[in-house]
Amino acid sequence: MSENVVLDGRRARGDASRRIVLQSATDLASVEGLDGLTIGRLAEASGSSKSSIATLFQSKEGLQLATVAAAREIFTAQIVTPAREQPRGVRRLAALLRNSLVYSRDRVFTGGCFFAATAADVDSKSGPVSDAVRAALVDWYGYVEAQLRYAVEAGEIEGDPEVLAFELVALNEEANSRSLLLDDERPYVVAATAMRGRLRAAGADGSALSLLDL
Known about the structure:
The protein is mostly helical. The protein has helices at about 5-30, 40-45, 50-55, 60-85, 90-105, 115-120, 130-155, 160-180, 185-200, 205-210.
């Protein structure tokens, strides 16, 4: 067996171990926050050894950064990528908003939205981990606003895209927060209804808003 084959096998096993550990890490951080995500706590939650986790991630910060990156990939796969099947503007926006509500409602992470859960850990802090969470959220907010800007320019709706984006994201985040607090799915239905009402008031077409039905 060649040395390259041996190295490729080790790399594949290492990648598989990393993915399995990160599944536990993203879920744990969604409940306990990034501050609670340590090598020791993750070893306890995942059943892996501290030494194997330390080998994979080198440090607590390395683990936290890898966890944020893994959560961002999941967020994109669950919310953004499917919405890109719709044309830019109101239809893609409606798909994005629905996907974001379903992602939280269906508990892709036990603690609801990973980024809503971890934002409280980093909102007043600096450093690479805080920057990574902040960058993910800024990109999400910006993508929602970009669809609204396109919709306004295309004559699909009227209004200030920045204000509309703020309102719609706030409804999404409140649905996540209230559902977790009350252990109830009703907030998602209320949020979807409020989103449709806000976009309808801005002039959005009803057929596009049907994409927001839960």
